[in-house]
Design brief:
- The complex is a heterodimer of chains A (281) and B (205).
- With 281 residues, chain A is an alpha/beta fold.
- Helix content of chain A is 46%, strand content 19%.
- Chain A has a 7-stranded mixed β-sheet with strand order 6-2-1-7-8-10-9.
- The longest helix of chain A is centred in the N-terminal third of the chain and has 29 residues.
- Chain B is of the alpha/beta class and 205 residues long.
- Chain B has a single domain, classed as Methylesterase CheB, C-terminal domain (Rossmann fold, 3-Layer(aba) Sandwich).
- Chain B starts with 16 loop residues before the first strand and ends in a 9-residue tail after the last helix.
- The chains are: A alpha/beta (281), B alpha/beta (205).
- At the A-B interface, helix 1 and helix 2 of A face strand 5, strand 6, helix 3 and helix 4 of B.
Chain lengths: 281, 205
C-alpha cells in the first residue's frame, strides 16, 4: 500500500513531463502552440486521446503525432474543446441586444470578432441578432479558430436538427424578435442557416497564441475560450483584444471568466458586469 | 534546505485542501459538514454537487447561510485561498491546477455529469498529492469513485459517508468498492472530525 502511494505522485510528474514534451513537439512540428494551455483539463483530454489511439503512454502518442500528420489532425479535437450552442447563456445575448447594439447602431459600420468560434454557433447567433437590429448589412463578423475542421463546420452553418429545439429556446430567452425558423431550412435531419447571413461573415484561421491582430473591431466576443489558457496566454489574448478594439469598444467573455487576473484589467471597465461585457477604457 | 514536513504537529498529515462530492441527497449532507466548520479554518474546500444544468445555482447562498467561512462560486483562474469554500458552477467542470488556482472547463460531461466529482478529485490528486482529503457523500451514481482512488493513490486521504446514512447509497458504495476509504462514518460524525481539522492537521485523519 505504502509503495503504491509513493508511486502515484511520481507517475503524475512523469505524465506532466511527457505532456510538456508533447506540446513542444506539436509546436515545433505543426506550429500549433498549446504550451500555455491550462494543464488540469488538458491532462484528462490527453488521456482520452491515448485511449482513442491505444497508446500506453503519452510519449507513445507523441511518436505517432510526430510521424503521422493524420493522427495530429485527429488529436486536434482533444487539444481544443468544441462545445457551443446558439445563444448560449441567453442573458449575455440579451444584454448585447438591449445594451450594446443600440450604441453600435450609431456607428457607420460594425466589425465583430468572434474569437475561438469553434463550430460557429455563436457567430451565427450574432449574425441573427445583428440582422434583427437592422445592423447586419453594415456589419462584418470575423469568426476565427485554430481548428480547420471546426471552422469548416462553422462556415457551412449546418447543424443537426435535434439541437434546434434548444437553440430556439435560447433564442427566445435572449429576446429574439422572430422565430429561429426564419433563419434556417430543414432537410434530412439538418438545419441549414441562411446564406444571406453568411454574406456578412468571414471565417478564418487565427491563433490567439501565435497570431497578431488582423483588423480593428468594435466588439470582441470570446467566451469560454480563456478558461483553456493559463494566465500567461490569457494575458496575451486579452492584450490582442485590447489592441484590436477601437476606443470604447466592447469585449464579452464567458460567464465564469473574469478579467480580474489580467494585467490589462485596468484598461477595461465593466459595462454589463453580470453578463461579463466590458468596455475598453 | 529543510524540506517542509509532511507531518503536522499532532503527527497527522497536513491537509491543504478538502474536496467534497455529492449528488442526490447531497445538498443536506454538504450543508451539515459546512455548518460544523469553525472560523478560522486552514484548509480550502472545493465542492461539486450534481444539479440540473442551465439553472442559476442557489447553492452558494444556501451554503453561505449555514457556514461561517466565505462560500463562493468558483471563478476561473482564482487563487485558492485557505478557509474558503468554492462551489462548482452548474454546467462547468471545476478543477484545480498545480499552482493552486482554480480552473473551469466545458469538456464533455463525465457519466452525464458536469461538474464531475472525478474531474475535480483527479486534478486535486495531482495538485495536492498527499495534502488533500477527498470526501464522497450521498449520491445515485458512481461519480467520485475513480477520483477518490486517484487521491488515495497519490497519498491523500479519503472519507466516505456511511452508505446506510446516505439518502442515496450508490455513490458512497461505489467509492468504497473502487477506492476504499480511511474513514467511513455518518455525516454527523464526519462533521465533528472535519471541525477538528481546523489547522489542517490532526490525528482525526
Amino acid at each position: 500500500m505504502s509503495e503504491g502511494r509513493a508511486a502515484a505522485p511520481a507517475a503524475a510528474r512523469d505524465f506532466d513531463i511527457e505532456l510538456r514534451l508533447l506540446l513542444e513537439a506539436v509546436y515545433l512540428k505543426y506550429q500549433h502552440d498549446f504550451r500555455h494551455y491550462a494543464y488540469a483539463s488538458l491532462r484528462r483530454r490527453m488521456r482520452q486521446a491515448m485511449e482513442r489511439f491505444e497508446c500506453r503512454t503519452l510519449s507513445e502518442l507523441q511518436g505517432r503525432i510526430l510521424h503521422e500528420p493524420e493522427v495530429f489532425a485527429a488529436t486536434l479535437q482533444y487539444f481544443t474543446v468544441q462545445v457551443s450552442e446558439m445563444f448560449r447563456d441567453p442573458p449575455y445575448f440579451r444584454a448585447l441586444r438591449e445594451r450594446v447594439l443600440p450604441i453600435l447602431q450609431t456607428y457607420p459600420y460594425v466589425k465583430l470578432w468572434v474569437a475561438g468560434c469553434s463550430t460557429g454557433e455563436e457567430a451565427w447567433s450574432c449574425a441573427i441578432m445583428l440582422r434583427e437590429s437592422g445592423l447586419l448589412d453594415r456589419a462584418i463578423i470575423y469568426a476565427t479558430d485554430i481548428n480547420p475542421v471546426a471552422l469548416e463546420t462553422a462556415a457551412a452553418g449546418v447543424y443537426a436538427l435535434d439541437r434546434i429545439a434548444g437553440f430556439s429556446a435560447n433564442y427566445l430567452a435572449a429576446g429574439g424578435t422572430g422565430s429561429l425558423s426564419d433563419y434556417y431550412t430543414a432537410a434530412y435531419g439538418k438545419a441549414m442557416f441562411d446564406k444571406a447571413l453568411r454574406a456578412q461573415m468571414v471565417f478564418s484561421d487565427h491563433s490567439l497564441a501565435t497570431d497578431q491582430v488582423f483588423s480593428e473591431v468594435e466588439m470582441v466576443s470570446c467566451r469560454n475560450v480563456l478558461i483553456y489558457f493559463d494566465r500567461q496566454l490569457q494575458a496575451r489574448a486579452i492584450g490582442l483584444f485590447h489592441d484590436a478594439l477601437v476606443p470604447r469598444g466592447f469585449l464579452g467573455i464567458g460567464s465564469k471568466e473574469t478579467l480580474r487576473y489580467s494585467p490589462r484589467a485596468g484598461s477595461f471597465e465593466e459595462f454589463a458586469a453580470q453578463e461579463r461585457i466590458y468596455r475598453k477604457a | 534546505m529543510k524540506a517542509r514536513s509532511r507531518q503536522g504537529a499532532h503527527g497527522g498529515p497536513q491537509i491543504d485542501a478538502i474536496v467534497i462530492g455529492a449528488s442526490a441527497g447531497g445538498v443536506e449532507a454538504v450543508g451539515a459538514l459546512l455548518q460544523a466548520l469553525p472560523q478560522p479554518y486552514a484548509p480550502a474546500l472545493m465542492v461539486v454537487i450534481h444539479l440540473p444544468p442551465d439553472r442559476r445555482s442557489l447553492l452558494t447562498e444556501i451554503f453561505q447561510a449555514k457556514c461561517r467561512l466565505p462560500v463562493r462560486e468558483a471563478l476561473d483562474k482564482e487563487h485558492v485561498e485557505s478557509g474558503t469554500v468554492y462551489v462548482a458552477p452548474p454546467g462547468y467542470h471545476l478543477l484545480v491546477e498545480a499552482d493552486r488556482t482554480l480552473a473551469l472547463s466545458l469538456d464533455a460531461p463525465v457519466a452525464f455529469s458536469r461538474p464531475s466529482i472525478d474531474v475535480l478529485f483527479e486534478s486535486a490528486a495531482v495538485a495536492y498529492g498527499d495534502r488533500v482529503l477527498g470526501i464522497v457523500l450521498s449520491g445515485g451514481n458512481n461519480d467520485g469513485a475513480a477520483g477518490l482512488a486517484a487521491i488515495r493513490e497519490a497519498g491523500g486521504r479519503g472519507w466516505v459517508q456511511e452508505p446506510t446514512d446516505a439518502l442515496a447509497a450508490a455513490m458512497p458504495q461505489a467509492a468504497l468498492q473502487t477506492a476504499g476509504a480511511d474513514l467511513v462514518v455518518p455525516v454527523r460524525d464526519m462533521a465533528v472530525r472535519l471541525a477538528h481539522l481546523r489547522s489542517g492537521r490532526g490525528v482525526a485523519l
